[in-house]
Write a structure and sequence with these properties.
The complex is a heterodimer of chains A (344) and B (429).
Chain A (H helix, E strand, L loop, with lengths): L1 H31 L6 H19 L1 H27 L4 H23 L15 E8 L3 E6 L4 H4 L8 E7 H23 L1 H11 L1 H6 L4 H26 L6 H16 L4 H20 L4 H8 L5 H5 L1 H4 L2 H4 L3 H12 L11
Antiparallel strand pairs in A: 1-2, 1-3
Chain B lengths: L11 H20 L3 H26 L8 H20 L9 H20 L4 H21 L1 H4 L5 E2 L16 H24 L1 H11 L1 H6 L4 H27 L1 E2 L6 H14 L6 H19 L3 H15 L3 H14 L3 H34 L6 E4 L2 E4 L3 H45 L1
Antiparallel strand pairs in B: 1-2, 3-4
Classes of the chains: A mainly alpha (344), B mainly alpha (429).
């Protein structure tokens, strides 16, 4: 039970991190029609900016300053490169961001080196948020913070006690993502700027003729989207690892999220992020293969079958490909994505 | 009336170009005889097939694929397994035909995976190809029996019976095999652009809605073209397996797919011969530039970005635009400007390059002292004078370059209007 709860929470927090990235990507895509290939690069830049700024002034200021800086960089990139190729169509725009991902990767390696940097969360977040104690006699109980050692062990050998801590960084990740989700929703639906953005999204010409500077709105949206990626980077970088490969590991997954959720659908992106986060986290935790399944079903397998590499694969080994399998299945059975409205 | 120089039934211009192409491939290894150039030429042939097959998707079909290496890579794997079976004697196939195994494999996988990917076009297509590429790459690490794990699968191309003394032991024999395959594949891919399918593919790229109205299924057109591209990609992969005699998981990786995209675009996706230029550049960049400087990926990214923004047609379009100017006898007017652009551009690049190299030196080779050699000059990566000097050189270059560029753009505009007028005049006459 405690395994299920902790895994579920881990999956949810990873899913919410994915959503922080995919929400920016979706916003940019639905607004400008540009799939920002360099989105994960901005996530990486956010992590590195956070690392440097945290070294100067501490983690909490970095959490605010780094995303702002990343957003400014994003807005500048839009102004200097994307706006120039906007007239050529979508493929050159995609290619610009593709080239940008190469350049950002090289620049990051140039400034911060090719190995991982040590970007650790502040002391407050370093421990565990709460601990689930499964006592075979007293049942399941919850304790805020880390559990003292005497609670997790018992003098009596017949009593089994299992402590499952939930890291505070994960909890913080969920908190920030949910705050971001709510404020984004409020911004888009309840404020004047949000209304202008929505108008520019569906009817750019009309918004323009009403006197709104649509190219500037585009620039702001791009900056905001990359800023969100930067925020995710600060949190993701301090929770996981800050290294030049971090863009590539998360980059392709967020594209899967956007396609599975439905191109340009923010709620679809949310659903898909959480789904993929949970699926991947659970899959990693299970060491089952077809052999285990067969053993539980009471089938006997020959040695040749047991040595077969497909049969031998455990679920945790398959975990990295699950998002892509999911993508292929969605494309076959529901081409417009989970909550998408248009056929691409 | 415009005059066409067509000598029916023979189109002389075309025969001359193709003849020259064959001749260049025939004599190239006799001129460049070193070991390095022999391997480079072989790689160029392979890259030409791969980039051209990629251009069936990008240039002719408007399909931006991020996963072309899946088809070249799986072709490589199938070919190397076939080669090993030939060596073991379980498969009776001449080594010369092993690349065809790769081709069929590439085609087979394109039939299988292309069905999913070509359901969409545009941006969703790009993302799906990327998803499929990640899927295959992740699988390559899971199934080590087929993909050989970290070490890859190696083979020996000196297998089976020698055919007229051709054992494929010496590199030169492999080169000529690759050259023959390259010539045939290039010719076939050119022929494909002239078929009804190739033509309707261009229409699908430009206006899919209209194609649907005249009764074609755009999805099927994309699917069929994707299969053909997969066939040629697989042949390129099979040749690669024969050339290197080892296939590792990186042949299906995202880096390889990205390289095909980058260089096909740099060469020029709008012209048939553009990817050939791109392929040659690719091998030069991978083999020579990466030896020359550690910052080559940065340079590559910057060049790519500038090309996308300022010359979306790639090098081929730059070449063709200047050929047009030359055809109207006005290239000489631009010669001075070109010379100016070249020198000022070089000055600017030298300054920027010196600074980039110094940064790289500080980051990567700090243990080897502060000094480095750059184009015959000793630079001190921690000295103020080196930095100020490089910055001055770059800024001077930049200023002069911008000055000449403005002059050149003005002149270029004038010449283009002249040419337009001339064309109108000829049409009226």
């Amino acid at each position: 039970m405690e395994f299920f709860i902790i895994s579920m929470l881990n999956g949810l927090s990873y899913g919410l991190l994915l959503f922080m990235l995919s929400s920016g990507l979706t916003l940019i895509f639905s607004m400008m029609g540009v799939l920002n290939f360099a989105h994960a690069s901005f996530y990486m830049v956010g992590a590195y900016f956070g690392y440097t700024i945290a070294g100067w002034v501490g983690f909490w200021p970095a959490l605010i300053v780094a995303p702002l800086l990343v957003g400014a960089c994003g807005a500048m990139v839009e102004r200097l490169t994307l706006r120039k190729v906007h007239k050529f169509g979508h493929v050159p725009e995609l290619l610009v961001t593709f080239g940008l991902s190469y350049i950002v990767l090289e620049l990051v390696q140039l400034v911060w080196g090719r190995t991982a940097v040590e970007f650790s969360p502040p002391d407050v977040l370093r421990g565990s948020a709460f601990t689930l104690i499964n006592h075979s006699v007293q049942g399941l109980s919850l304790l805020w913070g880390a559990a003292p050692a005497e609670l997790c062990s018992s003098a009596d050998a017949a009593v089994r006690v299992v402590c499952s801590p939930f890291p505070a960084t994960r909890g913080f990740m969920m908190l920030v993502a949910l705050l971001m989700l709510v404020s984004l929703w409020l911004l888009l639906t309840r404020t004047r700027i949000g209304l202008v953005i929505q108008a520019a999204l569906t009817h750019p010409e009309m918004a323009e003729s009403l006197g709104h500077n649509v190219p500037r709105v585009f620039m702001l949206v791009f900056g905001a989207g990359t800023g969100l990626a930067g925020l995710a980077g600060v949190i993701g970088g301090s929770t996981f690892v800050t290294e030049p490969a971090m863009a590539a590991t998360v980059g392709s997954v967020i594209f899967v999220v956007v396609v599975v959720g439905g191109m340009g659908s923010l709620s679809g992106a949310f659903l898909a992020s959480v789904l993929i986060g949970v699926i991947q986290t659970f899959a990693v935790a299970f060491d089952y293969s077809f052999i285990t399944l067969a053993a539980q079903m009471g089938w006997s397998l020959s040695d040749a079958v047991k040595e077969n590499s497909v049969v031998k694969l455990t679920l945790s080994q398959v975990a990295p490909i699950l998002p892509y399998l999911f993508l292929v299945l969605i494309l076959i059975f529901r081409p417009k994505g989970l909550l998408g409205t248009r056929e691409g | 009336m415009r005059t066409y120089y067509k000598f029916k039934p023979l189109n002389l211009g075309r025969w001359i170009i193709w003849g020259l192409f064959a001749l260049v491939m025939l004599v190239a290894p006799l001129i460049f005889t070193s070991q390095l150039s022999a391997t480079m030429l072989a790689q160029m042939g392979i890259a030409i097939i791969a980039c051209l097959s990629y251009n069936i998707l990008l240039g002719q079909g408007g399909m931006l694929s991020f996963g072309h290496a899946v088809y070249t890579g799986l072709g490589s794997y199938m070919a190397i397994h076939a080669l090993n079976m030939v060596t073991a004697g379980t498969l009776h196939l001449p080594v010369s035909l092993v690349p065809m195994v790769g081709g069929l494999a590439g085609m087979g996988f394109a039939v299988l995976l292309g069905y999913v990917t070509t359901r969409k076009s545009g941006t969703p297509f790009a993302m799906i190809t990327m998803g499929v590429a990640e899927l295959v790459f992740a699988m390559s690490l899971m199934f080590s029996e087929f993909f050989g794990g970290e070490a890859g699968v190696s083979g020996n191309r000196v297998a089976g019976e020698a055919f007229f003394g051709i054992t494929y032991g010496p590199q030169i024999q492999v080169y000529y095999l690759i050259a023959i395959y390259t010539f045939v594949c290039v010719a076939l891919m050119y022929a494909f652009t002239q078929t009804p399918l190739g033509r309707i593919l261009n229409a699908v790229r430009d206006n899919p809605e209209r194609v649907e109205f005249i009764g074609y299924n755009t999805q099927r057109v994309r699917y069929l073209s994707f299969i053909i591209a997969g066939l040629f990609a697989g042949i390129a992969g099979g040749l690669g397996a024969l050339n290197f005699e080892i296939v590792t998981a990186e042949v299906v990786g995202a880096g390889r797919s990205g390289a095909y995209l980058l260089f096909t675009f740099l060469g020029g996706a709008t012209f048939f011969f553009g990817p050939i230029l791109g392929a040659i550049l690719m091998v030069i960049a991978f083999v020579l530039l990466s030896e020359f400087t550690k910052a080559w990926l940065l340079y590559l990214g910057l060049v790519f970005l500038f090309m996308v923004i300022y010359a979306p047609g790639g090098f081929a379009s730059l070449l063709m635009m200047n050929l047009r100017v030359a055809a109207f006898g006005k290239l000489r007017q631009l010669a001075v400007s070109y010379l100016g652009l070249l020198t000022t551009g070089l000055v600017m690049l030298i300054g920027a390059g010196a600074m980039i190299e110094m940064v790289y030196h500080l980051q990567l080779n700090a243990a080897m002292g502060d000094t480095l050699q750059f184009m015959g000059v000793t630079l001190n990566s921690k000295g103020v004078d080196s930095w100020v000097g490089s910055a001055l050189v770059m800024l001077t270059g930049l200023g002069l370059f911008e000055f000449t560029r403005r002059h050149y753009m003005h002149e270029w505009g004038l010449i283009q209007t002249d040419i337009e007028k001339e064309i109108k005049r000829r049409e009226a006459a």
